[in-house]
Design brief:
Elements (H helix, E strand, L loop, with lengths): L1 H9 L3 H24 L13 H36 L5 H6 L1 H21 L16 H28 L2 H19 L18 E4 L4 E6 L1 H11 L2 E4 L6 E2 L4 E6 L6 H5 L2 E4 L10 H13 L7 H19 L7 E3 L5 E5 L4 H16 L3 H17 L5 H18 L4 H6 L9
Parallel strand pairs: 3-8
Antiparallel strand pairs: 1-5, 2-4, 2-6, 3-5, 7-8
Organism: Longispora fulva
Keywords: Membrane, Transmembrane, Transmembrane helix
Pfam families: DUF2254
């Protein structure tokens, strides 16, 4: 269920289509209310509520909604192009998950559909005795939808302006990462260590289709393994591309589970997602940093902003125990073992490419040195060796990229702001 909720949240079309359908069916609910009120046309003769005036206003609202839709579409394209070119194409998924974008587009579509529907009944409303009446409820709801559309448009413009700023996108990635970290690296956990048997597996489940593993239903895997009395080892990590016929799960036990049952616990997609992949958030932040360091962009300040969030995430992960990746049944028997990235691999992911492409940028090297010094103080003693190794690699890379002398001394001076 969680996987499907995430798919719906990541998809762009469900909310706009639902609101469009709502705008189409709303008149079937407002028409009985209009008939119940039955506002006499003679009461509004010579006022702005005449049929001619109402038709003109509703027509204008419908035309304005089409114009708004064009503006929203154009602004979306501009925002997406800027985000993809300056940050990373992979951050576009965040735009598709923004609720304000989906709701704004959906309300515009609903207002247009509702206006067109109401336009066809103005002046045609008749009671059982043949007398006409003014659809005052439908008109009031149309004005309410128009006001809501204008308010949402203001918030939408504000969101697009924020989307064009790298700081907002970086913080959005980091915010989603914190939720994944809380799930995969709990602050405290009992000893869950378990080892894979030394002997060869009794069976192997192979992948049926080539795709990217986006998430796993560990509860389903545990239930399947407990029912058969076996131990399962998941071969790929979440985020891996798995080719057709590649090993998916190794099985130890006499009663091998059905391959289709095991495969049903795996969820696939065309690309990695943030919601169940603890290393993908760091991957996105690193992509933003190295894109900013490319000669085409040449924006080390954005790289420094990405490093700020990377350091914060690493400090949070380092303060927690490593995830064992062991999942047990209700009796405490290990049933599923999956590989989870440890702190060393996440640190390697976080700093290797930024160090490689930013060694000759003093602002980046100074911020990286300050970040590594901070981590050495924050992290527990058993992890300081990993940080010290990366600091030595960074210093060596800077010495190779920057001429000796005053420039080198500046580049090797730690600074949390880079160059301020």
């Amino acid at each position: 269920m969680r996987h499907w909720r995430e798919r719906v949240r990541s998809a762009f079309w469900p909310t706009p289509l639902f609101l469009l359908f709502l705008g189409i069916v709303l008149p079937t609910f407002t028409e009985p209310l209009d008939e119940l009120v039955s506002l006499d046309p003679t009461l509004v003769t010579g006022t702005p509520l005449t049929d001619e005036t109402n038709r003109a206003v509703i027509s204008t609202i419908a035309a304005a909604m089409l114009s708004f839709l064009g503006v929203v579409f154009s602004m979306s394209l501009v925002g997406l192009q800027l985000a993809a070119s300056q940050l990373s194409p992979r951050v576009l998924r965040i735009y598709a998950r923004l609720r304000i974008t989906k709701i704004t587009l959906g309300v515009f579509l609903a207002t247009f559909a509702y206006s067109v529907t109401v336009l066809g009944v103005i002046g045609e409303n008749k009671l059982d005795d043949g007398t006409s009446y003014v659809p005052i409820v439908s008109l009031a709801l149309n004005w309410l939808l128009l006001f809501t559309s204008l308010v949402l448009f203001v918030f939408y413009v504000n969101t697009i302006l924020r989307l064009m700023r790298s700081t907002y996108m970086i913080e959005a990635v980091a915010s989603e990462a914190r939720g994944v970290i809380d799930e995969w690296y709990p602050a405290a956990r009992p000893d869950e260590s378990a080892t894979v048997p030394d002997r060869a597996p009794d069976g192997v489940v192979l992948a049926a289709e080539p795709s990217v593993l986006t998430s796993l239903n560990f509860r389903r895997l545990v239930r399947t393994a407990a029912r058969q009395g076996v131990l399962l080892r998941v071969v790929p990590r979440v985020g891996d591309f798995v080719a057709r016929g590649a090993p998916l799960v190794q099985v130890w036990g006499e009663r091998l589970p059905y391959a289709s049952t095991v495969r049903g616990a795996f969820h696939w997609g065309r690309e990695r997602t943030l919601h169940d992949d603890p290393s993908y958030a760091l991957r996105l932040l690193v992509d933003i940093a190295i894109r900013a360091l490319s000669p085409a962009v040449n924006d080390p300040t954005t790289a420094v902003q990405a490093i700020d969030r990377i350091v914060d995430l690493l400090a949070d992960i380092g303060a927690r125990p490593d995830a064992a990746g062991v999942h047990r049944d209700r009796r405490g028997v290990p049933r599923v073992i999956a590989e989870v990235p440890d702190f060393a691999s996440l640190t390697r992911l976080a700093f290797t490419e930024i160090r490689r492409y930013g060694a000759d940028a003093p602002q980046v090297s100074r911020r990286l040195l300050a970040a590594l010094d901070d981590l050495a103080v924050i992290l527990p003693p058993e992890l300081t060796g990993v940080v010290a190794a990366h600091r030595e690699l960074l210093a060596a890379a800077v010495r190779r990229a920057v001429p000796a002398g005053a420039e080198l001394a500046i580049a090797l001076t730690p600074d949390r702001q880079g160059l301020g």
